[in-house]
Description:
The chain is an alpha/beta fold.
Amino acid sequence: xxxxxxxxxxxxxxxxxxxxxxxxxxxxxxxxxxxxxxxxxxxxxxxxxxxxxxxxxxxxxxxxxxxxxxxxxxxxxxxxxxxxxxxxxxxxxxxxxxxxxxxxxxxxxxxxxxxxxxxxxxxxxxxxxxxxxxxxxxxxxxxxxxxxxxxxxxxxxxxxxxxxxxxxxxxxxxxxxxxxxxxxxxxxxxxxxxxxxxxxxxxxxxxxxxxx
Length: 212
């Protein structure tokens, strides 16, 4: 009698959907920061760049692709949608019904938890939490004035001063060398409120324990 094949153990994955190259660089920096600072942090995390707002359709397509490419059943321990809030502030897009999106993804895929990370008002504002680091990376004086109403405008202007076109969606090669030099701990400290649920789903613990 032929021996039955053992059941494959499922892959437990946490997926972070981001809307551009700049977001991917910053969120990847955060994940690596957690790996370095949190004892036993060895979660399987994938960052999926949708090069535009990660709506339900794009996230669904991303999850389906992961399932199809996996050699084992997939359990999505967490699905995270990261996006700028300025598109709603500027009236460029209506805010999705996130509870409905969450229900649909859970119904269609093996998703256990879902949350959003709102970059207020944009991922560029997060970068400016380490303004000194960005100015140093660009080789600009620390007293350089920030011009523009929004964070995106200010960051674009800083890159323009060095004759670099800042494209947050598809400009990885040009912007990564500079964004990699940012102090992620400063960004994380400034955005703890926005990252609270995100860190909970990733299993990030003990970062804020006071030293005795």
